[in-house]
Amino acid sequence: MTATENVGRRFHPDYGYGGKILVRDEPVATILAEALTGYASGRFQSQAEVKRFLDSKPEFPKDYRKTEVRFDSVTKYLKNLLYAGYLEKREWGVPFTKAQHESLISLDVYQQNQKLLRQSSVAPSRKDISPDFPLRGFIKCHACGHRITACWSKSHTGDRYPYYLCQYRGCPEKGKSSARDKVEEQFENLLKTLVPTEATYQLAEQMFIQRKV
Length: 213
What we know:
alpha+beta
């Protein structure tokens, strides 16, 4: 196993069956999962944006002069089937198989990333990705259904205010801004209404059991 395949995971003794099993290595696992899921959802519209996100996280291991993540490493993360909890090594006679280790992402997220990689998206990378607007590129305009953007607006007094807005040509709400705090509060309230599935509860239970071990 290469160093890239190990990022976000570590070996832990498996007292039930002997030997060792791969478990999540936090906080790197959560950071990597967010990056991979963000690419699948369109939050990050290119590998350059995924790289920029990982570079911005001090806890995430860097492999270029210890300050940056290499572009080829980003590609390897996106293509790594092991992160979805499966393995396949046809050259070794190992077919597509559910693995025993914990996954960082779902199989659906992995498959969506492979589809995007095959499409070789040419969308330009944005240079304004920042924690100031965590929902940028993640939520859609209620009027036209396209992803919204965000910006800082300066008042006549020189004060700066954060806003989300739609800039899609032809949208009836084009250019109409909504205060960042209001949008994010509504999003937070929506999240509070979501109820985890039984499968999610079972997964969380297994994670806590393994942590205790």
